[in-house]
Design brief:
Jelly Rolls, EC 5.1.3.13, 5-stranded antiparallel sheet, mainly beta, RmlC-like_jellyroll, globular, 6-stranded antiparallel sheet, 184 residues, RmlC-like
Length: 184
């Protein structure tokens, strides 16, 4: 497993060694000891996946304290553009975003720190997106910012979105409860 830092502190792209032979392929997308050695979260009490068709945009989502969480995300089938927006007050990248393609062929993952909004856009005909979180979903802590309020250049200006996502507040109107805590 290879961990690559991104421009957002605490956010990492994780590349995995893929084993292939005549039967197919084996992808080990989590190894507790390896994550511990890298200083990454290993306790993900909730895992879920979504199936989306092309041009679906999900996000930009987060949970507020005290149920804020770290996410470990990957694309099990197809291709997605995965996006992270830094919402941590005091962060040198506050309001900036990171966009990275996650796909099933590469089997890469993204480790998203607390205090960041997350979303993705489906590039392929179908995608299966896997999300692991360090806290369980809490409706009373659920939050988000509007998908087109952060300067992100999405592949389309007319994505397929949920009613909930359509009415999320814009970044400039969002009073962030997240504080940046630099790593030492």
């Amino acid at each position: 497993m290879k961990v690559k830092p991104t421009k957002i502190e605490g956010c990492f792209e994780i590349e995995i060694i893929i084993r292939e032979d005549g039967r197919g392929r084996l992808v080990k997308n989590f190894h507790k000891t390896s994550f511990e050695k890298l200083g990454l979260m290993t306790d993900f009490p909730e895992h879920y996946y979504s199936v989306s068709k092309k041009n679906v945009l999900r996000g930009l989502h987060f949970q507020v304290p005290s149920q804020h969480h770290i996410k470990l995300v990957s694309c099990l089938e197809g291709r997605i553009l995965d996006v992270v927006v830094d919402l941590r007050i005091g962060s040198p990248t506050y309001g900036d975003h990171l966009m990275i393609e996650l796909n099933s062929e590469k089997a890469n993952m993204l480790y998203v720190p607390e205090g960041c909004a997350h979303g993705f856009f489906t590039l392929s005909t179908k995608s299966i997106f896997l999300n692991r979180t360090s806290t369980m979903y809490s409706n009373s802590h659920d939050g988000g910012i509007h998908w087109d309020s952060c300067g992100i250049e999405w592949p389309t200006t007319n994505p397929i979105i949920s009613k909930k996502d359509k009415y999320l507040p814009e970044l400039e109107n969002f009073d962030s409860p997240f504080k940046f805590q630099p790593t030492i």
